[in-house]
Amino acid sequence: MSRPSKRARTSDALVQAALDLFEQQGYEATTVGEIARAAGVTEMTFFRHFPAKEQVLLDDPYDPGLIAAIGAQPLDDPPFLRAARGVRGAWRALPEPEAPVIRRRVRLIAATPALRGAMWRSTGNTEAAIVGQLVDDGAPVEVARVAAAAVLAALVTGLYTWAESASTSLADAIERALDVIEVRA
Amino acid sequence: MSRPSKRARTSDALVQAALDLFEQQGYEATTVGEIARAAGVTEMTFFRHFPAKEQVLLDDPYDPGLIAAIGAQPLDDPPFLRAARGVRGAWRALPEPEAPVIRRRVRLIAATPALRGAMWRSTGNTEAAIVGQLVDDGAPVEVARVAAAAVLAALVTGLYTWAESASTSLADAIERALDVIEVRA
DNA sequence: CCCAAAATGTTAGCTGCTAACATTTGACCA
DNA sequence: TGGTCAAATGTTAGCAGCTAACATTTTGGG
Fold it and tell me: Could you list the residue range(s) of the whole structural domain that residue A27 is in?
């Protein structure tokens, strides 16, 4: 039952300081040096914890649950629908306690063009994983790529409107975003 | 019938030099200074023509034809389908003479993570225009946003696979990408 | 041909980010 | 408890992207 390692504590301090400063003065107006100083640490140390300024807001953990949920969709459905419904299922099953923190982060990202770009690039892992699953299940690569990209785009957009809106539940927002894409004729 | 203005000539020289250097040594390994020198000009001048290094590859002209094509889709269809079919129609009508240049650019973008992010951010104008059209035609904003994002994601992904593939026609590639998304139940 | 405006050059500086080396701090064990 | 080795941090130096302010040249139209 040791207290969190020093590394973890520093990381947290940096993330907190960054969130506060970004919200106060905006992302671009905030210097990595400022963040570091506010966290009681050096600029160099910041970059030892995060490879780039943006990464203090964007960690994109590869999510095995999501991939499994997609794999569990009926193989007869077109890849696009399998991906969409898989994402839907995975998020429905997700706990929402961290919602407030997520909202702060997403709100900042949505409001900063540079971060929107970074966000998109940072979904690379997830996108690759989805493509992998779809291809394993027999979809052609080009098809899988488009399906993954479109579904993730919908998901991210849903996140943005959720973050900006006042009080909706995260799961509901995701569901509504996916409804837009899963058109039933 | 005056020859192209000096500004235009310098811009072209910069774009050409950038394309060549990027292909030879990669995007990140190429310096703005190098590009400028290869174009017979100063680094400062580069930034007077393009606000950022990426922008030498990514100009995103707002496309009125595309918006019109979306507006022309049946109002009864769901926004997502209207956007997808509008994009389909607009690209089908497009001339393909510039395909070789486009391919060089897109190939570079597809191969460079940093540029993929920038590409995504640079579609912002188009995305906003699509959202505007859909909303004007009665769609709720949140719905329009998701529809526009998903369709553009599919389009861009289609562009990427087209650029990497050998000889397909651009229009065909786009069509196939949109086929993935427009699932008919 | 001439001259205002446009295009370019110069210098200086800030911020993000990296490398290489020195120093401190902390966790674990004798 | 005290020591020890590795992890975490600090320092310095430097490059690349990008901006600002001011000086200089070039252009194209009257």
Answer: 6-56
Nucleotide whose C1' lies closest to the alpha carbon of residue B118? D17
Would A1 be classed as within a structural domain?
A: no
Q: Within 13 A of B9's CA, how many CA atoms are on the CB side?
A: 7
Q: Is residue B90 domain-shared with residue B168, that is, in the same domain?
A: yes
The verdict on a CB contact (< 8 Å) between B121 and A124 is: no
Burial A20-42 (b: 16+ CB within 10 A, else e): ebbeeeebeebebeebbebbebe
How many separate domains does chain A show?
A: 2
Number of helical (H) and strand (E) elements in chain A, helices listed first: 10, 0
Give the confidence band of B93 by pLDDT, cuts at 50, 70, 90. confident
Q: Looking at the domain assignment, is residue B37 inside a domain?
A: yes
- Are B181 and A147 an interchain contact pair (Cβ–Cβ within 8 Å)? yes
User: Please, which pLDDT band fits residue B3 given cuts at 50, 70 and 90?
Assistant: low
Q: Does residue A145 lie within any of the structural domains?
A: yes
Residue pLDDT, tens place only, A104-161: 999 999 999 999 999 998 999 899 999 999 999 999 999 999 999 999 999 999 999 9
Same domain, B35 and B68: no
- A-to-B residue pairs, Cβ atoms closer than 8 angstroms: 101
